[in-house]
Amino acid sequence: MSKVIGKRVTRVEDKRLLTGQGKYIDDIGTPPNTAHAAILRSPYPHAKIISIDYSEALKIPGVKGVVTGKDVQPLLNPFSVGVSAPVKYYPIAIDKVRYVGEPVAVVVAKNRYIAEDALEKIKVKYETLEPIVDIERALEEGAPILHENVGSNIANHRTFHYGDVDKAFQQADRIVKHRFHFPKYSATPVETYGIIAQYEESTDSYTIHANFHGPFVLHSIMAGALKVPSNRLRIIIPKDIGGSYGIKAGIFPYIVLCSVVSRLVGCPVKWIEDRQEHLAASSSCTDRVTYIEAAVRNDGKVLGLKMKIMDNVGAYIRAPEPACLYRNHANTTGAYDIPNLMLDAYAVMTNKLPTGLIRGYGGQETYFPLERIMQMIADELEMDPADVIRRNLIKKEQFPYKTASGGVYDSGDYEKAFDLLLKTGKYEEFRKKQIEARKKGKLLGVGLAVIVEPSGSNMGYITIALTPEERKAGLPKSGCTEAATISIDPMGNVNVRISTTPTGQGHETVASQIVSEILGIPHDKINVVAELDTATSAWSIASGSYSSRFASMGSSAVYYAAQKVKRKLIKIAAHLLQIDEDSLTIENGQIISKTDPSKSISIKRVAGSAHWNPLSLPEGMEPGIYETAYYTAQAEPPDDNDLINSSITYGFVADLVTVEIDPETGEIHILDYYTVHDAGKLLNPLIVDGQILGGLVHGLGGAMYEELVYDDKGQLLTGSFMDYLCPTATEIPRVTIKHIETPSPLTPLGAKGLGEGNTMSAPVVIANAVNDALKPYGVIIDSLPITPNKVWSMINQSTKQGVSS
Amino acid sequence: MSVHKIEVTINGKKYQEQVESRMLLSDFLRETCGLTGTHVGCEHGVCGACTIHLNGSAVRSCLIFAVQVDGQEITTVEGLAKDGELTPLQRNFIECHGLQCGFCTPGILMSTTDYLQKNPQPTLQEIKEMLSGHLCRCTGYEGIIKAIQKTVDENNHHYEAERR
Amino acid sequence: MNGSGKVILNAGIEKAWDVLLNPQALKNCIMGCTKLEPVEENKYEAVLSIGIAAVKGKYESTIEIADIQKPNHYKLIVKGEGGPGSVEATGAVDLVPIDENTTELNYTYDAEVGGKVAMVGQRMLNGVAKLIIQDFFKKFNKELAKSEQSV
């Protein structure tokens, strides 16, 4: 029976964070002789570096050294990446700059103030080249080429044919098609990147502290770049990270940069990124152009889909890209039963900031065209969008459901969740209100979106970027491994070590809940250690927090480690009490006989024996209590037909949004946002709702406010928070969250991951709502963000009647 | 760059330090005084993470120079809880899950504490407008708003109980 | 960013032309210009100190005068680079005589701004450009008056 897991337990992390005692990267102190770095960055999107003269910079008192690409190149390999295009990516420009903000030189000085003074004294001569930022134009003949040795701007290109797409399109009553554009935006954690890098010459090794959070496959990539064996690159992650939402995975080039700078300058180097650097040169999602075609029957059933996808990965394709294209590969058809799918997927390079993980990662880009086309199908067939959705939803009896591209949806009851949504959101009632409102000249709209939220990425999925023949030439990747270590010390106190490097999601609390329930100890007596040290923690390539994997993978590793500890404790207790193991159970800090409660022994005594009196242990048993569990779900590599189950568990999110639009100003007022979630078993409902709301506001930002805008000459125009607009408290709509739980059969606790769902769904559900409101004007919303001036222009340029007021 | 001697009281303690004229107050608090509870998120006055109290009023420490606070009184987030006893606002942040990564939290606590002292009974819209000077990317703001509303409600009951 | 405009100069066309191409006069009129020295025929090296939003700094620039059709038309090509970013601007100037003491000057300009100043000061750029131009012509009319006196 569940006593702690699933409860709204308040967080153990909170007290230190509320009293200013958090330990973020900039709080943890530095080795003696640490100096501070500032980075000179390219003002041009595309240019050759002719010369760099830093002689004046070196004269400033307090400057310890200046490093440029020429100094760095002999010490590094370019970063390896999972595509065959020979793109050479270094953490600093070598002979060319390819995006505004690309590092060109690094100054190391006594403090950041002096380092920034020195930046102004560095003279760089550039020869500007023609930039290219438009995704489709980058593919055209004659477009400027970023990487001469690649010969084109295509970093990766694959086509996939699942089912019988041609037949589906022949059998269709009509084809509904459109082009959609999804913008480039970020998630801008309030804490920026931070690194303390120290090179030790005597051992030719690097010790790094950084607010990096995985995936730890990037550790291998960093070691490869630094030309050191992996056990000579020690990365230590602090226990507090000020948010990330995927963006801090992109810190890895800077870790390598600061490492090699420390080596060249001869002292430890600390670098704390500032906000302008972050917006220009950290990481972001891809902007994407999608051409989608749906083969549709007149009753609303979609028989097949064709999608041509062009993802803009920025100036350099870097690991784990092109995962942006493939993270959602298994769930490309979303919540719908569509067995015929054609994908033509491009990763394209242009003179923009290189991309990486972000909350939603590929989901918002995938679902925008999909959920928009479903509404367009409804409009064309003159059906209610809710009916089109229902006609196509996967049915309860079909689970576990195999998708066209090889995904296996573990569990779900989509119709139940969708019905709950329509009921909670009073859909029918709103439709009636809408008709009345239109008569009065008011623009009310309602949008629907249903999406499948994947979690726990299968490490094999990235190899789908290679063809089956190319894959055969390399070693297969699989699994989604996570590890946890639980130990009991001589005084009987519990330490739990996790490798999921939390960035605010409350892993310490949830881990303590799980261990508390299994070992029968109060959760606040359990110490969860969230710091990760690649030299001493248990970790693997999939470790880290990304892809919402804690609830599915991280919690499972903790669960199994706790079970190992429980078994050992019971074994020892059975031996000490001289009774049968099977008759023992743990509760309230005691190991107690199920049948005779007088026979009991405290966990403290049992653990104590393992340390103080190991000779009292059962024959052959190791002293101490220290158990590590490595856990993976069955996550297989792609097969020769390119079928891949890219994630382990799949949740479901259904959204209903109502809006009112002011026809005079184009202002969009969100009246209500209803969302129904199915994330399997919820481990801590308090934390769950926080994650959902956070993800929703990230999605809201992408829908209406946030965009990294580049002009057609490649200049970044939104370089500060004055122009890059993040939603504040006054922008958030009224949100109603409802849950249903169809547990996952694949994880020991039945939990699926969550936290990215609404980031994937909010942009498209808001677009659908606005589109619905503007239906009298015949507009089609096919790009984001939706801003008042865009809406106003659409209304005023429309040739249709619109509404009279 | 000229260096100045300043004397400033922070959380009731006197600090006497030498600072360059251009040193930001946020850097002074964190690096010179070792009070790392105040966080830096943008250095251009938008995110609010650096908010502290200067002579009792909430201000952005990234937009002030250390020399400007010579002879003044500052309270940072470390100075809110007295003798390890959390304030009602801090306790309600725990109850209502008003923080996740915690990076924006100190600034929000400082702004809210100042605001509620001067406006003890704000409406929901007023709370949101007060918060609009702070960026939080984790919580979606709802937990924060709930924590503030709970604190306001508890204060109201407190006053009413005292009046009786 | 680009723009255009028209100004009345209080001098005849020949006089206006001469002062427009006088480097000392130009140095006095360009806001923030702390150095303007000829390096070649019709090419000058200049240092401009300008602040846009919070981004202040020095731009080491070259100013080239091209397409010279005395006294009616010339082009200005300005390339500047500094800590805050880079500017590349071309301007076309056309003079039309009104009477012996008045000339109409028509200008158009096209400017590419890059780097930090573009990232942070986008919304200010047009305003600052207008300000610099307005200030230039205000000071220029003063220069014209000064040179009138010295004759």
TrEMBL record, chain A:
Coiled-coil region list:
none
* Keyword terms: Molybdenum, Oxidoreductase
- One Gene Ontology MF term: oxidoreductase activity
Gene3D superfamilies attached to this UniProt entry = Aldehyde oxidase/xanthine dehydrogenase, a/b hammerhead, Aldehyde oxidase/xanthine dehydrogenase, molybdopterin binding domain
Q: Does the keyword Disulfide bond apply?
A: no
The Aldehyde oxidase/xanthine dehydrogenase a/b hammerhead domain is annotated at 19-130
Q: Does the keyword Mitochondrion apply?
A: no
Output the Pfam families linked to this UniProt entry: Ald_Xan_dh_C, MoCoBD_1, MoCoBD_2
Per its UniProt record, what InterPro entries does this chain match?
A: Ald_Oxase/Xan_DH_a/b, Ald_Oxase/Xan_DH_a/b_sf, Ald_Oxase/xanthine_DH-like, AldOxase/xan_DH_MoCoBD1, AldOxase/xan_DH_MoCoBD2, AldOxase/xan_DH_Mopterin-bd_sf
PANTHER family given in the database record = ALDEHYDE OXIDASE 1-RELATED (PTHR11908:SF132), XANTHINE DEHYDROGENASE (PTHR11908)
This one is known as 2-furoyl-CoA dehydrogenase large subunit
Q: Which organism is it from?
A: Paranoxybacillus vitaminiphilus
UniProtKB/TrEMBL annotation, chain B:
One Pfam match, given by its short name, reads: Fer2
Task: Tell me the superkingdom of the source.
Answer: Bacteria
- What sequence ranges are listed for the domain 2Fe-2S ferredoxin-type? 4-80
Q: What is this protein called?
A: Carbon-monoxide dehydrogenase small subunit/2-furoyl-CoA dehydrogenase 2Fe-2S iron sulfur subunit
**Entry keyword annotation includes Transferase:** no
Q: Which residues form a coiled coil?
A: none
Question: Which GO MF terms are attached to this record?
Answer: 2 iron, 2 sulfur cluster binding; metal ion binding; oxidoreductase activity
Q: Which PROSITE patterns match?
A: 2FE2S_FER_1 (PS00197), 2FE2S_FER_2 (PS51085)
Q: Tell me which PANTHER family the record gives.
A: OXIDOREDUCTASE WITH IRON-SULFUR SUBUNIT
- Check the record and name the InterPro entries matching this protein: 2Fe-2S-bd (IPR002888), 2Fe-2S-bd_dom_sf (IPR036884), 2Fe-2S_ferredoxin-like_sf (IPR036010), 2Fe-2S_ferredoxin-type (IPR001041), 2Fe2S_fd_BS (IPR006058), Beta-grasp_dom_sf (IPR012675), Diverse_Oxidoreductases (IPR051452)
The alphabetical list of record keywords is:
2Fe-2S, Iron, Iron-sulfur, Metal-binding, Oxidoreductase
Q: Give the pathway annotation.
A: Alkaloid degradation; nicotine degradation
Q: Which organism is it from?
A: Paranoxybacillus vitaminiphilus
Q: Which CDD domains match?
A: fer2 (cd00207)
Automatic annotation (TrEMBL), chain C:
Name listed for the protein in its UniProt record: Carbon monoxide dehydrogenase subunit G
Q: Which Pfam families match?
A: COXG
| Record InterPro entries | CO_DH_gsu, START-like_dom_sf
What sections of the protein cross the membrane?
Answer: none
For this protein, the record's CDD domains field holds:
CoxG
